[in-house]
Structure formats: structure tokens, C-alpha cells
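Sample A.
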Amino acid sequence: MLDQPSSDTRRVKSGAHPEKALSAVFVRSVKEPGRYADGHGLYLFVDRTGAKRWVQRLVIQGRRSDLGLGPVSLVTLAEARVLAEANRRLARSGGDPLHEKREAREVLTFAQAVERYLEKKRAEFRSDKHRKQWRATLDSYAGPVIGPKRVADITRQDILRVLEPIWETKTETASRLRGRIEAVLSWATVAGHRQGDNPARWAGNLSELLPKPGKVAVKGNHPALAFSDLPRWWVDLQTREGMAARALQVLTLTAARSGEVRGMTWDEVDLDAKLWTVPAARMKMARDHRVPLTDGAVAILRALPRLEGSHYVFFAPRGGMLSDMTISAVMRRMQESEEKRLAEQDRKAGRKPSTGPRVYLDPRSKRPAVPHGLRSTFRDWVSEHTSYPGEMAEVALAHKISNAVEAAYRRGDQLEKRRGMMEDWGAALNGLMPQ
């Protein structure tokens, strides 16, 4: 507890504003031991050695308590006032600043900080789905790189290691990810788990090291596979082993989003009816989406192993959901191995090797195709190589309704007609054109 007021204690006059009780000059110059009041329970304590520290007296859950706010060498008068006001607000609302301070002393990893942040901010998310999406982005991209690292030790270089691999290929996702990392680290700083500048801050920080998002990618423009490359790519994919490769096959056959496939659970799938129903909670448009399964997709699903204790169809090694990067890595490895094969052909033929990528490229941007771009390949196939209505393709892609005609298709679902379209799509993957 604090010592009782001494004769040299500076008292606050009734009604005085706290900011006028002490001055920064006085805090720096005072040497006489004692307790000096700043108002509203905040005191400057000077001991006999000349050391100075801030102490706050307040009532916490009905009990008077003294809370240390740090030494003057680390906490300025202005900062002490901010901390004291935050503690007073928390105590008035029934919280316990002492408990918060004890929590702040814990060694907190980034993964743990994400958990704490989401719990503290639960009420701010517009829906549980939004909260899960927010979390999934951090788990997929930041978790593998900085998840186990203490938040106090995270640097700008750590943030760059998270962002640089996807900054130019998944710019919108990367930009959103940066903002979410910044929010978590900002909370960690205010909660006392780290100090200093936020390494994920954009202005005057990462903005000097990364190109502006608007300069490297158009929103929603994911590199797509050229239709002419599709059969060769599909043959290549079928030679790949592993759960991620099987997930990529089903993603391609259904023209679904990566998150929808990775989150697929066995209770969503009826193999006998050849139907996959994605619940509204997992859909971008927040409504149930029925997906007809081709014979090829059903065969893949029937052959999959099941992991006891995991309800995911495409499970990660520890039983959780596959990460988006895992599926993207399959396409990247396919690209790399094909490039090596072509380079070896050049070497044997005595040709100068190419310096850039040559296979599985988006025909417009010349960038390597990514899983989400396969949906664009499917849409182009419907428009350019079939007589199926474009509106039906939009329903298959679960896109937002933009006019009354599409709305009519959505109401009727067109499941059986779409089943025929998806079977033809499966044939196209194998180099066959619809009759």
C-alpha cells in the first residue's frame, strides 16, 4: 500500500483539473522523497534513492487497491495519465486492471494473441462467419510463419516474410491480411505484451518496401489457366499424390472456391445422390449452395481415407482443415516441375533456356495460374465452347445475382441441368468437347 501523505505531498485542490496538478518539468526536477498527487488517484512516488515511479490508487470490484504504472524513466506524465484513465474506466465497468496487468506479463505468442484479440473484439464482428473468415486468413498465411513467435519479438522482416510470397499473386488477400496482423499487434501493444512501433503498419513503414496494392493487381483478377492447357494440366494433376492434390481435383470438377472445398465435411456430402450441399454459413453469399457431383468427383471422394476424430473430407495431417497455401503449393509444384522438364529439353537440344515461365500461365497477364483462377477458366469454357446459358454458369459459381433473369435461375436452382453442364466440364478436362 502507499505510504500516508507526508508534509511535502502536493494536494489537488477541489475541482482542479488533473492535467494541471503536476507538470512535466516538476516530474523531471523533483528530488524530495514523498508522494505527489496528480489527481484522480494518480501519484508520483519518489523514494529515498531518488527513483521515481507512478502509482495509481483506485477501487477495483469494491476493494481499494494500488496499481503500479511503471517508472518515470519509461512512462511519461502524459502516458501515466492515459494509463490511469483506462484503468479507471475498466474498474468502473466492473473489470479488474490488476488482472489485466498480470495477463500482460505473460509470454504471448502471435497465435495466442489472435485468440485473445478475437475474444476481446467478438462483439465487433458483423457475424460469426465474418469472425471465422478473419481468423482463417491469419491461420492460413500468418500462422505458419509467425504463429509460434512471441509478439514482443515480431519485427518488420517477419511481416515481410508473411506478405511477400502472396503480395503480387493474391494482393487483395495480402492487403487484408496485413491490416489484420496490424490490428492484432496493436492490441498486443496496448495490452502490454509488446512495445514500440507496429511492424505491420503500412504508412511510412511497409509502404516503403512493398508496391502499392493497386499497382500490382486488379481486384479479383486471379491468374487463370488457359483452356488450351487444361487437358495437359489435368493429366499432370492426376499423377500427383496427397490430400491437397485430391482437393484440387474436386475444386476443379466443381468450380468451387478453395475455402468451400477445404471446409467440406462428410455430413455435407451425399455420395449416393451425387450431391454436395454447402451450408450458408460457409458461403460468400450467405445462402445454401447445392453442388452436383460428377461421377469423377464421386469416385475421388469414395477413395479418400477418413481420419477418426476429424469431420473434414480433406483433412490436414493433424486433423484440421487444409490451408489455402497447401492447395496453391500443388499448382506451384506442377508449374516448377514442368518448367524443369522444358529446361531439360532445351539443354538436350542445345537451345538457350528461357528466362521466364512458359507453362500453365494466364493468357492475359502471363502470370502462373492459381486455384481460384480455375473458376474463370470454367466460366470462359461455358461462354466460348458450350451453349449453356451464362446465367447457369453464374449459379454454379455461386455469384451474386445481378439481374432478374439470374434471380429466376437462382430460385429454381437448375440442379439437374447444372449436373449435365458439370459432367460436360469433366469431359472437357479430359480433352473431350460436349456433344
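Sample B.
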Amino acid sequence: MTTRPDLSGLIKSYDVRGIVGDTLTVDVARAIGAAFADRVVIPDGETEVVIGRDMRDSGPSLVAAVADGLRDRGVDVIDIGMCSTDGLYHASGALERPGVMVTASHNPAAYNGMKMCRRLARAVGENTGLGDVRETAAELLADGIPVAAERGTLVRRDMLAEYGAYLRSLVDLSEVRPLTVVVDAANAMAGHTVPAVLGTDAGLPELPLTIIPLYFELDGSFPNHEANPLDPANLVDLQAAVREHGADIGLAFDGDADRCFAVDERGEVVPASAITALVGLRESAREIAEGRTPTVIHNLISSRAVPEQLAAAGAVPVRSRVGHSYIKAEMARLDAVFGGEHSAHFYFRDFYFADSGMLAALHVLAALGEQPGTLSELLESYSPYAASGEINSTVEDVPAAIARVRATFEGDGVEVDDMDGLTFSHWSSEPRWWFNVRPSNTEPLLRLNVEAADADQMEQVRDAVLGVIRQA
């Protein structure tokens, strides 16, 4: 028997992510496709898988390899071509098929990967099948892929227009006031989806939007900047263009366009928590109007303003760990109408409990266009507190650093919980502050998020905690 390769660095907790030609080859991709068939698709009683890809140059060969692996095991394949990750989720939901999205999201050009789901876009993570896929893919690489008596078929289908029409059916922009919108696609998949959903490229009616495109040309080498809007450097061009054109709003999408970030008319970045509150309140109002009590999920790093405002509006806010697999599971379990994360992943019950950057963008555009004020005026009440954003610290001994933080800050009216890392809260009395420290799953890092009632208090707590974490 050939030695089985170690795929733990490639097939991670939530997805597949590696360097093309190094950790991720066509042979590995074919084995992953066959393993997905053996460990998820066939045991679920499925016979067909939908597959899509982003704009990276390695995408076509990797899609072909994954499809070959699935077909080797007797599974039929529907190839929908280039799409955003939420476009793949839509196909999984609309066609009621499991899916594979070939993408490396916001990673640099040398990378590619895969995101997998069961039918109706249900996530496949470490404990819901991906660990089994990793194990079986290693076996198949070592021992070979047995070919089924009847190999699966391959058909191609374009679903972009159906995706756009479905999103528009969830949020109606036809009657909003005219808006000027700058969109930075970062040469990634929003350059494919925005003209179809917000424009007329897929045959949908014209909306009262003037779209000013930045970097819509699909180019997996990312010639202008990385498709990672979490890095402020990648928002500079969008901010400048919004101010230059006097636009109402700017939108930035990541590589596979499942996340959406916004900047206001001044070019100021809108916190993801403000979007969570805005969209959560919109979805909650619709539920309440239909006689239901809405549940909204937010991760534990979201601003305290999110649960406060949702509860005041009659919704039930539920706190979750960070990570899409946790939020998607909680949303399905509780039939939550919406979920939001600090990383700008936004999840919708009406979108198969999956995340969609485009659907979040539609909600923000609708909220802006349904009233006369600016975006900064609209969102002012959703960001009443001061937040640090996520700060990473490299530490030699992560458990020791966490122990120092606990020893320093525990007590004196501070509540501590360990849902995800450690959260220390002094929110029930003055001065109001909280912070969370979480270890990275893959690096010797501690991630810190701080929020307080005002900027001075936030900075004091931030600096005190960092001093303890980075203590030599």
C-alpha cells in the first residue's frame, strides 16, 4: 500500500484551500471529488452534484478534475460555470442538489480551493462530512479511485439569470430613489454578478441605479489589489471613487463575492455590525408584520448594539460562535430569519440559510433608497459604541498568554464566558466595555476585539489587554 498523503493542511475545518500545483493538484482535486461522492453525496442518497468556479486561471482544470472524481464514482454533474459562491448556493437550493464551489475566496492568485455543501446549501464542515472527505481523499490518492460500473454524466447549465431574478424577488429596488453606486469588484466575481443582478446583463429590468464600476474585468491575478476588503488598503480606491463621483454608497466584494462591505457617501467604512443591525431589523419587521417572532443570529464579536436594538424591536437575538458552520447550524435549528458576522458574512433564511453578499447589498440599497437621507445619517444610530476592530498578536505560548489575560481581568464585576475563546464583559455597570480573545486555528496568534461605550475607554482597555498579551 502506498503511503497516504497528509491533507490536513489543504482540507481545513470549513473548506479546501491550497497553492495550485503544490498542495492542490488536479490529481488531488479528482480524489476530493471522488471522496465527496463516497462520504457525503452517495450516503445522502444523492445522484447529482452542481459545481461552479470563480475566475481564477486554475478553475477550469480543477472543476474538470473534481467532476471526473464525482463521475468516476457514478455521480452525475451539473456544471454551472463561473459564478459567485452564493450563486453556487442558489443553484444548490433551487435544484435541490449538493454542490462544490471551486474558489479560494479572498486568497492571493496562487491559491485555489473548494467549498462544499449538501442540498439546499447546507454546509459541509469538519464535523459534518469534511473530515471524512479528507480521510477518504488521502486513501484514494494512495490506492487509486475505483470507477463505478456506470460512470456519471456531465451537463452544463447557466443559472446566472435565475440567480439574479431570485435575489430581486427577495428585495424590491424598483421603486427606490435614484442612487449612484460605486462597486469595486477587485477583478473578481462581482464583476460577473453585479451587471447581472444590479444591471440588465441577465435580461432583468433596469433599476434606478447608476453603477460606477471599478475593476470589473475578470482577472484571477488581481492586477489592481487583492480581493480582500477586510484589509483597509484594498478599500482605498473605492473610498476615493465614492468621493470623486459624489456617490451615495460604495460596495466592495471579496474574491468569490459571498461577502459585501460598504462605505458611506463620505468614503467612511461602514462597520459590519451596523449592516447586521440594519438588515436584521428589516427582516425582523417583515416577520413581525406577518405575525411571527423573529430570531436573528449574531456572532459574539458583533457590537452590543446589535442585540440591544434587535431586542428593542421585538426580535430574539441569539449569540453564536464565530464561523459560518456554527451560524448556519444555529439558523437552521432556530429557523432564524437572518444572521450576521463581523467579517461581513450575512445569512438569510430565505436564501437557504446561506450567506450572500449580494443579497445584503440589495437590503442596504433598499434601506438607503427608501428614505431621503445619506447613508451615514441612516446608519448613525446603529454604531453608538467604539470598537477596536480585530487586532492580531503573534505569541510564542498561546495558552500562557490567555492565562495571563484571565488572571489580570477576571473579577471586580467582570463576567467571563468561554463560548469562543474568552469574552470578558463589564457591560452591566460603568465604565461599560467588553473584549474577546480567541486563538487562531492555524497560527500562533491571538485575536483581540474590544468595544466600549466611548473611544477613550475602548483605547484604555485595548492597550491594557495588548500589554498583557504581548508581555515578554
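B remarks: The chain has four domains: 16-158, 161-263, 272-382, 387-469. The chain has a mean pLDDT of 95.
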